[in-house]
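Quick one:
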Amino acid sequence: MIGADDTVYAGGVYHGRVRFTKEYPFKPPSIMMTTPNGRFEINKRLCLSISDFHPETWNPLWSVSTILLGISSFFYEDANTTGALVGVGDEEKRALARKSFGYNMDAATGPKNFQSNFKGFIDAWREAKEKEERGGGERGRGREDGGDSDARNVVGAADDGNNAHDGNNAAGERANANTITLGILCVAIVVAVIAVNVAARSS
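Output:
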């Protein structure tokens, strides 16, 4: 999940896990974040109305996209729950957002197989960074403030099938957009959710 513009999470790249049981969709999944973000503890199951903490509120008709929307809604709220962090300031959240990509990429700290599972996304992110560095000026300052333009470029490239040439053109167009739709923000985590779901069903 990429942090939304105009929030303290802007420019952040947040990895999480949604684990489905063999009984899905009749039983809810467990949900946890693995990238430090200032909102939720990492590697700890989150108590949400859409998670396995509350099977009584689970609806079998809820799809993966519904789950992702629910995670996002809690991510941008201040409601306290099991797994939530309290008292983390905005500056610390912004600092974590700036460090998040490097954290994910570090084999010692980041999610297992992050680099292999999200190669297309990583390549697009790096291309966006290089483009920002070449641009300098206002875009360079934007990079220091959290990399909002980077996020737009990367999401655009990933949405276009990670095709390097076409992705760059689409990314440039999306970099001028004022907002990013929630569906596209969740592209990376959707891929992870599907992979985990397939793995769970095959095990």
